[in-house]
Amino acid sequence: MPPQATDPPASVALEIKSGSVNLLTLKLADGDLDRVAKQLTEKVQNAPEFFRNAPVVIELSALNTRQSTLDFERLSTLLRSLGLSPVGVRGGHGALNQGAESAGLAVLAERVETPAREAPKPVAPKSESPLPTLGGGSRVIDQPVRSGQRLYAAGGDLIVLAPVSAGAELLADGNIHIYSSLRGRALAGVQGNLSSRIFCLDLQAELIAIGGHYQISENLEESIRGKPVQVFLRDGALIIEDL
Amino acid sequence: MSRIIVVTSGKGGVGKTTTSAAFAMGLAMKGYKTAVIDFDVGLRNLDLIMGCERRVVYDFVNVINGEATLNQALIRDKRRDNLSILPASQTRDKESLTQEGVERVLNELSETFEYIVCDSPAGIERGATLAMYFADDAIVVTNPEVSSVRDSDRMLGILASKSRRAEQGLEPIKEYLLLTRYSPERVRLGEMLSVADVQDILSLHLLGVIPESKSVLSASNSGTPVTLDEKSDAGQAYRDVVRRYLGERVPHRFVEEEKKGLFSRLFGG
Description:
The complex is a heterodimer. By secondary structure, chain A is an alpha/beta fold. Chain A has 2 domains: 24-107, ACT domain (Alpha-Beta Plaits), CATH 3.30.70.260; 139-242, Pectate Lyase C-like. Chain A contains 4 helices and 15 strands. Chain A has a 6-stranded mixed β-sheet with strand order 5-7-9-11-14-15, with no helix packed on it. Chain A has a 5-stranded mixed β-sheet with strand order 6-8-10-12-13, with no helix packed on it. In chain A, strand 2, helix 3 (72-81) and strand 3 form a beta-alpha-beta unit. Chain B is an alpha/beta fold. Chain B has helices at residues 16-29, 46-50, 60-64, 70-73, 99-112, 126-133, 146-161, 164-167, 184-188, 195-202, 214-222, 233-245, 262-267, and strands at residues 3-8, 34-38, 75-76, 83-86, 115-119, 137-142, 174-182, 205-211. An 8-stranded mixed β-sheet of chain B has the order 3-4-2-5-1-6-7-8, sandwiched between helices. The radius of gyration of chain B is 18 Å and the shape is globular. The relative contact order of chain B is 0.17. The model of chain B has no long low-confidence stretch (mean pLDDT 94). Chain A binds chain B through residues 128-130, 143-149, 162-163, 165-168, 181, 183, and chain B through 150-151, 153-154, 156-158, 160-162, 166, 169, 200-203.
């Protein structure tokens, strides 16, 4: 019998699922909306493509001790005029949250502790070649990492001084440094260390991940391809930045 | 002390057997006592390319199983008497090869021959891993296209980790890149990876570039290793490869497009 697709019955018009998405977070350090407008406009003009129609969460934690009100209507209008799409606030206290709600913004729950997507469980791989191990579980690799090879630095950093080929996989509990081209996969902080980072001199990766937050090659911005970059997590979003 | 060279690639159809035959013949032409072994049990081809298919009595598996002595199975080349061929069995499969058996045959060959060329089958399974296990040097045959490059890369990873030299912590296998079926014109048109592209991905010492050539096919069909064809560009390229392998400094040829003269441009030569 041929395999059949299991389509939901025609009567079902919707399905409720839980899912997590990465959003840009706008952290307000100051309640002065004139200054916010000026600085944000500059930032958006620098990278219009990056910000186009991006949904944004407004982070209020820094304002709690300073003020109890904020003109959310004006802030929303400002964001929309810059092409951003405000979806909610977080980190605020009572009065600030109320103000946001009445301006039609969602009040989001505090930080979720579990990472959005679980990283593949790191199985301590059989090392394909005997390589030196530094103290603290860090490893230094000075030979090219070939397609099909899998290297894991348990409890430390993985430092690679040669190219990492497509189809190779690097895993580390700590940071991953590649002083050459990265064409394979690099997964830092595989045990959940969200402050770990990936550094490489030439980003052509198939996949990069930190603590289970990942991005695949197809979604990498053209502007950072082939460049020296660092990758880190900020508020649950994977940030790729020129070095 | 003899040197064992594996000719390998991962991917099939890239020119391993052509290269094994041409390279072994090139070493023999330089005066070295050379043996070439076909590891492709079940799909034997080397005897055809070497032109000795009608003289096969015993084969590699017979020797491993003790059904024949090495001297009974070795076929001496009629053009160069310092070159011998050990053909593969066509009626068995690769499971007939055992590590102990292969080691015994290689040790015995080492007593007589200066160079032993192992023609690896495609893939990364038993035949291929045994062909490279005892190697001192590896010639990684690669075509200028992405899937061949990736398979070569995979094979390089295996060479670096699953060989005898790797397992015993000896000096690693020396790896050489050989680009075959190269066409500068198609590189210019963007249809093929360039030498620089491939070297960038594989970061490997370039032993040579063999141009795409009609002479390779006719050499195969006639059972004459292309190295013997002095006029052919591929034959010359293989001679250069042998000289480079032996430590001579030879500039790379066939990497740039040949300038066409007015005549050939007019008549589409």
